[in-house]
Amino acid sequence: MTNRWPLLVFALVMAVIPLIPGMPPFWIVLLDNIGLAALVAMGLVLLTGVGGLTSFGQAAFCGFGAYTTAVLTVSYGFSPWVTLPLSLLVSGIAAVILGIITVRLSGHYLPLGTIAWGIGLYYLFSKLEFLGRNDGISGIPPLSIGTFRMLDPGTIYYAIWLAVLISAVLTMNLLDSRTGRAIRALRRGHIAAEAFGVQTPRAKLLVFIYAAVLAGLSGWLYAHFQRAATPTPFGAQAGIEYLFIAVVGGAGYVWGAVLGAGIVVILKEILQSYLPLIFGGQSQLETIVFGMLLVVLLQLAPTGVWPWLMSRLPFRLSRKHPDTAPTLPARERLATAPSVLLHIEKARKQFGGVIAVNDVSFDVQAREIVALIGPNGAGKSTTFNLITGVLTATGGSISVLDQNIDNAPPQEVVKLGVSRTFQHVKLVPDMTVLENVAIGAHLRGSSGAVSSMLRLDRSDEARLLAEAARQIERVGLGDQIDQLAGSLSLGQQRIVEIARALCADPVLLLLDEPAAGLRHMEKQRLAALLRQLRDGGMSVLLVEHDMGFVMDLADRVVVLDFGTKIAEGVPDAIKSNPDVIKAYLGVSA
Amino acid sequence: MNTTIMLFLIQDGITNGAIYALLGLALVLVFAVTRVILIPQGEFVTYGALSYAMLATGNVPGTVWLAVAMGVVACGLDLFAMRRALHVKKIGRTVAINIALPLAILALTYSLASAKTPIAVNLVLALLIVATIGLSLYRIAFQPLAHTSVLVLLIASVGCHLALQGLGLVFFGAEGLRGPALSTAAFTVGPLRFTGQNIAVYGVTIAFMVALWLFFGTTLMGKALRATAINRLGARLVGIRTTLSGQIAFLLAAVIGAISGILIVPITTLYYDTGFLIGLKGFIAAIIGGLVSYPLTAVAALIVGTVEAFSSFYASNFKEVIVFFLIIPVLVLRSLAAPEVEEEKD
Fold first, then answer.
1. Chain B hits for A286, Cβ within 8 Å
2. ipTM > 0.85?
3. I want to staple B216 with a disulfide (CB 3.0 to 4.6 A). Which of A433, B25, B119, B222 is the partner?
4. Residues of chain A found within 8 Å of residue B340, distances taken between Cβ atoms
5. Has residue A370 been placed in a domain?
């Protein structure tokens, strides 16, 4: 975060509120509840809004945190400060176990799975003898520092909001880092992220654990705030409410969680205290209104209140431009590198009865531009996917620099120096060009989640961003560096993909229809760039439909038709090859 | 354990399982057509069951007024949506469906409500009420969101569940209700006693399964529904009215939910919030069936019912825990068997 002032002002305001004379204690209780809910919702922001993993079960993780400290302090006389790390640990371990099972599930299975184990855990809490069954555990000691005991809502207030502020800062630090970019690529564009070495399952598990630990922290605070732990606040209803908070605030924004918690907690309070006055003593009226508001809100403002507020700010928060001075070590290139960079031997891919790639063999030499052409459906992109490990081959072998990469996952292929672009652009639309391109350098950085949260990753991060900025400059998009990738034209997005691929410091660049959507001048500039890369020692394998572009640029052309290689040679030979003409025009001209 | 107890438990499990199967089928149906994970399915169950039970005591359930109110809102939304192209025919259609129909049901209910009304009439009235609620629910809550992601639909679905469950408390009170049995016939086979109610549960479940299978496999409307499920835009381009598909799916789900409720309310006491748990067990079956397969869902529902029966006998305290954790091994198997879908999703 470049701008720390809003955060400081917020912290100051929050610190002063309880000191205002005549502040009703009830309001402080409300603020305590908002802080507790905001902690859980912040985890959900990362998990659901950013990572795209919906969980209805976060309340259960609060339960783990609360019951851990309840049992240890009441039954075994531990100090609350000793149980804090233990509470977080128990929530984290529970998240690891549930996460390994559930985060691999895609789409709707995940939320449904979380509803199921959320309810299961609630019943478990309310049935276990040592957790006090439905009555829960009472008489939990308050938090205390020396002889100062945080007994009233006004004192634990500081503990709660300190936790909220620290968590918010850590979360924002995490999002603004190498690991954070990997997390942000989970929801959209995870295939591309994997092609640059991001271990997406690990990133998913990471956010799942992170969200659970935040929920555990909230549970720990809750137990010492209420001085009791009962099953009800950790049930399905609460889990749903936390998700609601995140959605109301704006599921992709850290401060949206705090805002959403404020809105929902206050709204609930108002509904609970005023609705019975209007409609008589009927209970649960607030649930009805609550449910209806949820539906209406989704229909009117599906992205939440926070982004709506931010778009109405009279000023824009400025971004700092990366310093392009720091450099990353380049890939070690063997002096006696084999002349054959990529060797494909009888590669085969069958989808059921369809043979998409039929025993195709060809090589790419060092310092060479090879074009892979053929009519639509010839198997060009499938060949790309076989090389980069997105698809597993049915047969044959593929090797890079004499190393066999048969069925290696994409993350391994890129380590060998093969990076690619995609036929259908796969950028994260709500990340800037710079951030998107920096994903390409993922494997060239080393900082993990913890060092990112603590901002120990700055020198590593500066090198990554500098490299990304240099590559953006190189492809000629320097002016768009801070724009959101989704706001660029399709042609420019393709160029961004090339910059991202270059960030991996490849020896072989695979470009899938790079010139599609480009204007004439842009195509010429692209061709010049590719020639320059080749002269610098890189090889390029490209799929392209623009024959003028291909024939002008390529050193060699490989032609596929219906999955089979029908010709290979220098452009001039291919242009007059009767089989190629037949494949394209249907008859031999 | 002796054989008699085991047989009893299995019978109990199958009866419950049949209900879960019905609900699971409805959930699969709605999800397949609209991508909505229908959490309020449980409310259809309680609304159907408790409306039926109240009608049996000669009272008019509040649900009938809810049907009218939701109809009015749905009609308003329809009129607002077509404000630029108001055709008499279209207006007539929406008024007929959304206002005239619920009003007719309201009038019918008030004129027929008495303690002496035959069971069959009460049953039909309860079904009609819940069916119109289901229809309006789609129009009001989900049709405007039809293009959004599964997640947004899911959260909206939770919102509907909260609102409907709260209204359930208003209509039916916190006390549980039981309804009269559909049939008092009974016979015994060996140690087991089969009541007419048991038979009705089995019969209705099987009938619905066969009917759905025929509907989706052989009729044009069924195929149109499936097409909507797979590709909304494509379905629209070939002339399928996707909103109609959604309405039909919700109508069917509401009817199935209400029938399930009416089938169980003579067996167990239902409370305004019981439906949620029953619906969720149907969910577990539906998830095991992968939200796509009807036969697998039905088999899974029977397993869920049987596991529930046995665990309530051996570890009644942990009955719900066991049932809800049943899903975990299934999820593990699914995640091992099917690698993550590589399609990018929004």
1. 166
2. no
3. B222
4. 104-106
5. yes
